[in-house]
Write a structure and sequence with these properties.
The chain is mainly α. It is built from 2 helices and no strands. α1 crosses α2. The longest helix has about 110 residues.
Length: about 130
C-alpha cells in the first residue's frame, strides 16, 4: 500500500498543481480583462471630456447669440413703441390741424371771387384761421 499511497499522493498533488495552474490562469485572465476594461473606460472618459469641452463652447456661443438676438428684439420693440407714439402724436396733430382748417373754412363759406384781388381777403382769413 505504500506504493499505492505514494501513487495516490502523487495524483492528488498533481490535481492540486493542475487546479492551481488553472486558477492562476483564470485570475490572470480576469485581471487582464479588468485592466483592459479600465483602460477602455479611461479612453472613453477622455473622449467624453473632450466632447464635453467642445459642447460647452458651442453652448456658450449659442447663449451669446441668443442674448444678442434678445437685445435686438428688445431694441426693435422699443423702436416700434416709439414709432407708434410718434404716429399717435402725428395723428392727433393732423386731427387738430384738420379741425382748425374746418373752422377756417367756415369763416369763408359762401365767398365767391373771380379775380385774384377778390380772392385775397378770403385767403387771408383762411391763413389766419390756420395759425
Amino acid at each position: 500500500m505504500s506504493a499505492l499511497g505514494t501513487l495516490a499522493a502523487g495524483a492528488v498533488s498533481g490535481i492540486w498543481k493542475a487546479a492551481a495552474v488553472m486558477l492562476a490562469a483564470a485570475l490572470l485572465l480576469v485581471a487582464s480583462s479588468t485592466g483592459t476594461g479600465w483602460w477602455l473606460a479611461a479612453g472613453d472618459r477622455d473622449t467624453a471630456r473632450v466632447a464635453l469641452v467642445l459642447e460647452k463652447g458651442v453652448s456658450t456661443q449659442l447663449r451669446s447669440s441668443i442674448t444678442e438676438q434678445n437685445r435686438a428684439i428688445d431694441g426693435m420693440a422699443k423702436a416700434t413703441l416709439a414709432a407708434q407714439e410718434r404716429g399717435a402724436a402725428a395723428q392727433a396733430a393732423a386731427a387738430a390741424k384738420g379741425r382748425k382748417y374746418d373752422a377756417a373754412l367756415e369763416h369763408i363759406t359762401g365767398a365767391r371771387a373771380t379775380t385774384c384781388d377778390e380772392a385775397m381777403p378770403a385767403v387771408r382769413l383762411l391763413l389766419e384761421g390756420m395759425r
